[in-house]
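Dear Dr. H.,

I hope your travels went smoothly. While you were away I took the liberty of generating a structure for the chain from your last submission, since the lab meeting agenda had it listed for discussion. I wanted you to have the full record in hand beforehand rather than looking at slides cold. The sequence, exactly as received, is reproduced here:
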Amino acid sequence: MRSSPQLDAVLTLNPNHPLANHLYIHAVEASPNPERAMAAADRLRNLQPGLAHNVHMPSHIDIRTGQWLKAVDTNAKAVEADQRYRKIFGTARPGDETHSSDGRGDAERISHGERATSRRKRRDALGSNDAFWPLGRHPR
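The corresponding predicted structure, in token form, is as follows:
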């Protein structure tokens, strides 16, 4: 998938538009060049600290670009945002679930980032080749 001219236009007019950054991440995360969304991920990272799903979104790019510890930290912050929300408003209404709304998705991504970090340390220690990386060649 690639970014659309309309999405690019919105980001040109307002680089801090939350939905435009969110959609841009989705548009390029599975592309051959997910690093194109690093700026959008960095903008979205702290743009809406109370909205757990948008706090979590940069981890899509963190994981795709091998920034495992950043993904762990990002998703931990998303879990914290979700916990703050639930403390104030209670549990989500039926039908409100997203892949991060109940914390389970974020916990899974935190675990994925921690496992990948552990694999990287082992790989570096053993001099293993890039074929063992889950998303292909590890960016150096």
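Two observations you may find useful: Helices lie at 5-13, 18-28, 38-45, 52-56, 58-64, 68-89, 104-126. Residues 5-132 form a domain with the Serine Threonine Protein Phosphatase 5, Tetratricopeptide repeat fold (CATH 1.25.40).

With kind regards,
E. W.
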